[in-house]
């Protein structure tokens, strides 16, 4: 339970910290970050679960909230492409800061120096509304459909944002940049497979590489790099205004790349309301179908590897393996 402090004796902090925060050393570090970033101590700080990075919601008196992220604790195992998540998010928020046609949180604080305990941190916001996971249980089916429609429109607006080249938004040591979408996708796929091979996960790596190589030409039909949030969907990532049923932002932009918008997992199983909100789907020609199965292959492979690294995320490994088998079978048939 988060305690709200409205008045305190002189010399004491007005910041209210959730009792489920870790040790006092962490509390002091968080208090320093929040006070510096928001220029106030009248903030309610709450640790929220279910995110890869340690995430805190910062509630202010004006009704808005901000998000503070910092590196995961040491026991959390990251895949190679996840290492630069905060840098990627900072780059995206900085690049989109001038956009007026879509609600994007501002990059409030992202220091180059490391904070106490050796963790980079990022503060973004303000966010208006509620995180979908907090309110979805109270939503009617009509409200849910309207939110899905709004999310489709939101994703469409993101998909119109052009990039300088295919690949990383923030070029780092664990990212890939290329002048072709085929090479970029192959690099992303290879990164996940190497994570799987490193821990001896039983997967048909040779066949996956062979299928991807045979279908690179279909990927290279995509010639204009656009903004893609690869891991976009999830009720913990979407912020909504429950009164208007509109999406008002996303919590996590750390999986962003410049590529084919249809690679986002938002298109894995889109609802009819999402499709209507997005409003533009490319024709289902042979190359588009091949790309669809390549993206299914990538997302299912990623789910399997993540499940091994972090079983607590409760991914359905069996379902992911079935999807991987389906994608490989369809790609093999197309290559025959």
Q: So what's the CATH class of the largest domain?
A: Alpha Beta
CATH-defined topology of the largest domain: Aminoglycoside 3'-phosphotransferase, Chain: A, domain 2
Order of helices and strands: EHEEEHEEEHHEEHHHEEEEHHH
Q: Beta-strand level of the residues, as a percent range?
A: 15-25%
- Percent helix, as a range, is 25-40%
Number of domains: 2
Protein name: Aminoglycoside phosphotransferase domain-containing protein
InterPro entries: AGP_Transferase, Kinase-like_dom_sf
List keywords for this structure.
six-stranded mixed beta sheet; 13 strands; Aminoglycoside 3'-phosphotransferase, Chain: A, domain 2; 336 residues
Structure explained in plain terms:
The strands form 3 sheets. The protein has a 6-stranded mixed β-sheet with strand order 1-2-3-4-6-5, sandwiched between helices. 37% of the residues are buried. Helix 4 runs parallel beside helix 8 and helix 9 runs antiparallel to helix 10. It is α+β, with helices and mostly antiparallel strands and 336 residues long. It contains 10 helices and 13 strands. Helix content is 39%, strand content 17%. The protein folds into 2 domains: 112 residues, Phosphorylase Kinase, domain 1; 204 residues, Aminoglycoside phosphotransferase (APH), C-terminal lobe (Aminoglycoside 3'-phosphotransferase, Chain: A, domain 2), CATH 3.90.1200.10. The N terminus is likely disordered.
Topology:
Layout: E1 16-17, H1 24-38, E2 43-48, E3 54-60, E4 65-70, H2 85-95, E5 106-109, E6 121-127, E7 130-131, H3 132-135, H4 141-159, E8 166-168, E9 177-178, H5 181-198, H6 205-214, H7 216-219, E10 226-229, E11 238-241, E12 246-250, E13 256-259, H8 272-278, H9 286-309, H10 317-335
Parallel strand pairs: 1-2
Antiparallel strand pairs: 2-3, 3-4, 4-6, 5-6, 7-11, 8-9, 8-13, 10-13, 11-12
């Amino acid at each position: 339970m988060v305690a709200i402090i409205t008045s305190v004796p002189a010399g004491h902090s007005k910041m209210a910290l959730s009792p489920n925060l870790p040790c006092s050393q962490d509390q002091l570090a968080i208090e320093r970050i929040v006070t510096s970033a928001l220029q106030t101590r009248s903030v309610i700080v709450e640790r929220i679960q279910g995110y890869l990075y340690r995430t805190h919601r910062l509630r202010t008196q004006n009704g808005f909230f901000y998000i503070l992220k910092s590196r995961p604790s040491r026991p959390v195992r990251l895949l190679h492409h996840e290492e630069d998540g905060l840098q990627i998010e900072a780059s995206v928020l900085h690049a989109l800061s001038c956009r007026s046609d879509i609600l994007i949180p501002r990059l409030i604080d992202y220091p180059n120096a490391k904070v106490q305990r050796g963790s980079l941190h990022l503060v973004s916001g303000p966010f208006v509304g509620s995180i979908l996971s907090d309110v979805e249980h109270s939503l009617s089916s009509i409200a849910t459909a309207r939110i899905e429609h709004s999310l489709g429109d939101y994703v469409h607006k993101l998909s119109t944002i052009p990039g300088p080249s295919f690949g990383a938004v923030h070029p780092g040591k664990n990212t890939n940049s290329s002048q072709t979408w085929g090479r970029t996708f192959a690099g992303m796929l290879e990164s996940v497979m190497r994570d799987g091979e490193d821990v001896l996960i039983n997967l048909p790596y040779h066949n996956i590489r062979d299928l991807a190589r045979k279908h690179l030409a279909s990927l290279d039909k995509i010639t204009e790099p656009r903004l893609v949030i690869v891991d976009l969907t999830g009720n913990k990532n979407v912020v909504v205004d429950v009164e208007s049923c509109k999406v008002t932002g996303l919590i996590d932009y750390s999986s962003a790349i410049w590529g084919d918008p249809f690679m986002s997992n938002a298109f894995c199983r889109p609802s009819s309301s999402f499709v209507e909100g997005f409003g533009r789907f490319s024709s289902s020609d042979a190359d588009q179908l091949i790309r669809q199965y390549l993206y299914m292959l990538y997302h299912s492979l990623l789910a399997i590897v993540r499940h091994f690294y972090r079983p607590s995320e409760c991914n359905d490994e069996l379902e992911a393996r079935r999807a991987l088998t389906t994608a490989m079978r369809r790609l093999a048939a197309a290559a025959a």
